[in-house]
Amino acid sequence: MMVDAIMRFPILLLCLSTLSAQSSYDLLLKGGHVIDPKNKISAVRDVAIRDGLIATVARDIPATQARKVVDVAGLYVTPGLIDLHAHVFAGSEGKGLAGGHTSIFPDDFALRVGVTTVVDAGSSGRRNFAQFKKTVIDRARTRVLVFLNIGGSGMPGDEHEQDVNDMDAKAAADLAIANRDTIVGIKVAHYRGPDWTPVERGVEAGALANIPVMIDFGEFRPERPFQELVLKKLRPGDIYTHAFYVPVPMLDESGRLLPYLFEARKRGVLFDVGHGGAAFEFRQAVPAVKQGFPPDSISTDVHSGSINAGMKDQLNVMSKFLNMGMSLDDVVYRSTWNPARIIHREEQLGHLSVGALADIAVLRLEKGKFGFVDSWGAGMDGVQRLTGELTVSSGRVVYDLNARTRERWDRLGKYQPQGEPSWDGSRGAGRPRPLTRSK
Ligand SMILES: [Zn+2]
How far is the CA of 215 from the centre of ligand 1 (A)? Predict the structure, then answer.
């Protein structure tokens, strides 16, 4: 009957063939092992993208339906990684991590390791957030979100970060409310004093703006015990970063995890890695993971002091947890869906549901003999390591290590610049395309 209809109506047939020639999808990643913890998928699936969004995830999507098909068999396909603790307010006009030389521009390190979203953890405060937005956030291809420092100037250096008179909860909350698209939380950090003022102001700002607070506890002092921070001062949904830093009371004398940690977790307080240049030690992390206390989120605390030391990049930190015995699915969960939930970006980020932003990491899991270094310089052997193969941001390929998307040079006809804007974002500068179709 269908054949009859087509025979009788050649115009209909013409319309159908024109439709398929136009292609349903811009980009199709074919044959990879998809790990999408939110949707409980860990299996070989094809992923199709249209207009910068996830269009279909299925067992077999015909290659003819896409403008660009990429073979990713043998690789892992995950939501774009979210680095919950980074320092990307780089520049030459500011100081330190606040517009100075110790922050790193996001595109310099993120996309090549599958990270499509970084959350800057307090480099800017209310006085220099506008400069940060103008000089870095609005120009980067990496998506940049912000924990706004409770201190007015962010992190220009130690002296400013001790000034409790410049920690204005109302002003910080007002700025966060006015910039809800970018500011996802409040940061408190590096305080050395004996009092709780910065923590209390941070939590106050978080409550006013209804956003989480991330705490770097600074100097650990007996006047303000860490146990009190996580059992009393922080609200459910607030984050303690630097979870495996040696000063954190973690183990008793026989090497058992202290029960208050589980109590804090039960209250809803979250523990982030925040590796950095000082705050990740195997002697804390290994027993914690083995005894059932994994981090809620895996993050780098990237800055000039950590990027070439033990930390290196997001995939190196994730690989450490793999080699401590965590499963790949779990490591991906704590680098995608969980951080998206922590910053309340569940709709668009951290998963591959139809309609989500098409931010995707394609990763290779290498097996062999590897080594890893912690923040204090101790080493650990490992047998597997993740590397970045291909990164897609808002539906466009922004990083392609092994020319998977490329026609071979000796098989091209006319030799001209390659790629088309519907799927290719790896050549030239500029932000990921907005959520409208560009032709
Ligand atoms: Zn930091």
Answer: 10
* Domains contained in the chain, CATH given: 80-363 (3.20.20.140)
- State which residues have CB under 5 angstroms from ligand 1, the bound ion: 121, 301
Contact between 234 and 270 (Cβ < 8 Å): no
Q: How far apart are CA 1 and CA 373, in angstroms?
A: 68
Using the mean position of ligand 1's atoms as its centre, give its distance from the Cα of residue 299 in Å.
10
Tell me the CA–centroid distance for residue 65 and ligand 1, in Å: 44
Look-up of token digits 């015990």: 225
The answer to whether residues 22 and 55 touch, using CB atoms and an 8 Å cutoff, is no
What is the rounded CA–CA span in Å between residue 334 and residue 353? 17
Three-class SS of residue 322? helix
Q: Do 121 and 187 form a contact (C-beta atoms < 8 A)? A: yes
Look at residue 4 and tell me whether its pLDDT is greater than 60.
no
User: Which amino acid is located at 226 in the chain?
Assistant: F
Greatest Cα pair distance, the chain, in angstroms, is: 87
Model pLDDT for residues 30-75, shown as the tens digit of each residue: 999 999 999 999 999 999 999 999 999 999 999 999 999 999 999 9
Nearest to 122 by CA among 239, 270, 267, 248: 239
What SS3 class is residue 109? Answer: coil
What pLDDT shows up at residue 11? Answer: 44
36 Cα to the center of ligand 1, angstroms: 28
Q: Using the mean position of ligand 1's atoms as its centre, give its distance from the Cα of residue 90 in Å.
A: 14
Mean predicted confidence (pLDDT) in 26-32? 98
Site of tokens 């860490």: 226
Listing DSSP states for 301-313 in one string gives -BSTTTTTSS---
Give the other-Cβ count within 10 Å of 436's Cβ. 7
Going from the Cα of 191 to the center of ligand 1, the distance in angstroms, rounded, reads 13
Q: Please give the Cα distance from 402 to 376 (Å, whole number).
A: 34
Mean pLDDT of 357-385: 98
Strands (E), 37-95: 41-50, 53-58, 66-71, 76-79, 81-86
For 155, 220, 295, the CA distances from 199, given in Å and listed in that order, are: 16, 13, 21
Query: What pTM did the predictor assign?
Result: 0.93
Task: Give pLDDT, residue 428.
Answer: 63
CB 294 within 8 A of CB 326: yes
Q: Is the pLDDT of residue 411 over 80?
A: yes
